[in-house]
């Protein structure tokens, strides 16, 4: 898509993994999102879930932070792989809370969840596929990673609310066009998406799929969002010294 003809007919969906994170995380990349793509509109946002075991020695974010500071170097957190949004959410949590926690990467969320339930790791930032295990009482949801409480989990505090001010780590999906796409084509697509987002009942349908539909962002607002998201992850990745092949 980054090399596609900007004829107004080519659009693609992007997410933090390939838009905000990849440019800083990978040693080489055959595209540059800020150069090759034009933000068009935000689609949906999905918080990650900060979870632990029901028998863990901490059951809230503040207890987790206190436990980590009282037991430096003892905590471990799982993710679905190095460089994933789950990994970076955990790294940012450790950095912002000043907790020494070791990252344990897995090949996907399922084995990470399995080892969390088995007691081989202490906590994890997982995607919403973990909801069934939360409802079954197999793991405990401590917080969501959106800046404020999520409509998906209204009884659960955000990480920021629960003790780490300023924390936010969202998954999102948005629409992009090749750089140079005519503004009228970009504005047309945004108008179509905005009309769809405002259709009665659509937000509830997304909610049933564990996705939140935020207020519409026009191309300029979405571009500012993407720039801020990219800057945030770039700063974290550089501080970690992370580079993937």
UniProtKB/TrEMBL annotation:
InterPro entries: BUG, Bug_dom1. Transmembrane segments: none annotated. CDD domains: PBP2_Bug_TTT. It comes from the Bacteria. Belongs to the UPF0065 (bug) family. This is Tripartite tricarboxylate transporter substrate binding protein. It comes from Diaphorobacter aerolatus.
């Amino acid at each position: 898509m980054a090399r596609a003809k900007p004829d107004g007919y080519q659009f693609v969906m992007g997410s933090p993994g390939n838009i905000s994170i990849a440019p800083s995380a990978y040693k080489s990349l055959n595209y540059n999102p800020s150069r090759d793509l034009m933000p068009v509109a935000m689609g949906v946002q999905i918080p990650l879930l900060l979870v632990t075991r029901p028998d863990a020695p901490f059951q809230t974010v503040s207890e987790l932070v206190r436990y980590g500071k009282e037991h430096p170097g003892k905590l471990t957190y799982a993710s679905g792989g190095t460089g994933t949004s789950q990994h970076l959410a955990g790294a940012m949590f450790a950095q912002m809370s000043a907790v020494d926690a070791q990252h344990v990467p897995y090949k996907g969320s399922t084995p990470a969840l399995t080892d969390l339930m088995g007691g081989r790791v202490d906590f994890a930032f997982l995607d919403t596929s973990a909801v069934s295990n939360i409802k079954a009482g197999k793991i405990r949801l401590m917080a969501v990673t959106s800046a404020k409480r999520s409509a998906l989990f209204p009884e659960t505090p955000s990480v920021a609310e629960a003790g780490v001010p300023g924390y936010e780590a969202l998954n999102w999906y948005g629409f992009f066009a090749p750089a140079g796409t005519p503004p009228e084509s970009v504005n047309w697509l945004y108008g179509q998406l905005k009309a769809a987002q405002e259709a009665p009942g659509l937000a509830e349908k997304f909610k049933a799929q564990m996705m939140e539909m935020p207020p519409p962002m026009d191309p300029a607002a979405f571009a500012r969002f993407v720039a801020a998201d990219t800057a945030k992850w770039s700063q974290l990745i550089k501080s970690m010294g992370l580079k993937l092949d």
